[in-house]
Amino acid sequence: MFYKEMLKLYLVTDRKWLNGRKLTDDLEKAILGGVTTIQLREKNLSNEEFISIAKDVKKVCQKYHIPLIINDNLEVALATNSDGIHIGQNDIPASIVRKQIGPDKILGVSVHNLKEAFQAKIDGADYVGVGAIFSTETKNDATNVTLDSLKKICDNIDLPVVAIGGINLDNISKLKDINIAGIAVVSAIMKANDITAASGQLVRELNHD
Fold first, then answer.
1. 23 is in an annotated binding site
2. Are 93 and 125 in contact (CB under 8 A)?
3. Catalytic residue from among 41, 58, 98, 105
4. Is 139 a catalytic residue?
5. Rounded Cα–Cα distance for residues 123 and 98 (Å)
6. What is the distance between the alpha carbons of residues 156 and 36, in angstroms, rounded to a whole number?
7. 40 labelled binding-site residue
8. Active-site choice (29, 58, 121, 139)
9. 46 an active-site residue?
10. Domains located in the chain, CATH noted
């Protein structure tokens, strides 16, 4: 079952920040700090390796009852029976992915404008990810989306919107007047010295405490 609240603090993984630590350990720390969804993103692994990691991450997610979303890879999502999949504009069309995963899995789609957001809804998306909102070192090919464009999407689409791209404690306040369901982050958590504390600080900012 998908709930909008699952999107509040959405962590996208990047193993380059591990520095010898175990991914599952870091993800557990992040969840304890307040992360509400994990997206497993692996661009440079074979499907066999990706599936192996996904199975380990799934155990952590199930322990804490939060969704595991697979980035871009339909085969891995199906093989691991993950809670859902997130795709971009250049991946398999969302309408085809929806048919493959069925009606009960979570489908997220990256969009950059209102037209793409409307199409994602037609194709069966449960939520859209909008970005990059701020410059990011995680994706060198990211297309920037202005705060005005983000607000326009949020105000006109009947789907939860997750803002992504370079979001951290220094700029998160710029999003406070925009009706997003949550934020997706990578380095703001993954490269932190204290992952649990970093996650908790972001949650507090999202709650405007």
1. no
2. no
3. 41
4. yes
5. 7
6. 25
7. yes
8. 139
9. no
10. 4-206 (3.20.20.70)
Q: What's the token pair of residue 41?
A: 């993103």
43 assigned ligand-binding residue: yes
How does DSSP assign 21-37, residue by residue?
Answer: --HHHHHHHHHHHT--E
Give me 49's structure tokens. Answer: 């390796």
Angstrom distances, CA of residue 60 to CA of 83, 179, 201: 13, 30, 22
Instruction: State the residue for tokens 């600080």.
Output: 201
Helix then strand count (H, E) for the chain reads 8, 8
Helix (H/G/I), strand (E/B), else coil: 85 = strand
Q: What is the pTM of this model?
A: 0.96
* 209 Cβ contact partners less than 8 Å away, ≥ 6 residues apart: none
Strand partners, 87: 109
Residue type, position 49, single letter? E
Q: What's the length of the chain?
A: 209
Hey, what are 200's tokens?
Answer: 């908790």
Beta strands in the chain (DSSP E): 9-12, 37-40, 68-71, 84-87, 106-111, 127-130, 161-164, 182-185
Please confirm, yes or no, whether 152 is among the known catalytic residues.
no
What are the tens digits of pLDDT across the range 149-204? 999 999 999 999 999 999 999 999 999 999 999 999 999 999 999 999 999 999 99
Is 124 annotated as contributing to ligand binding?
Answer: no
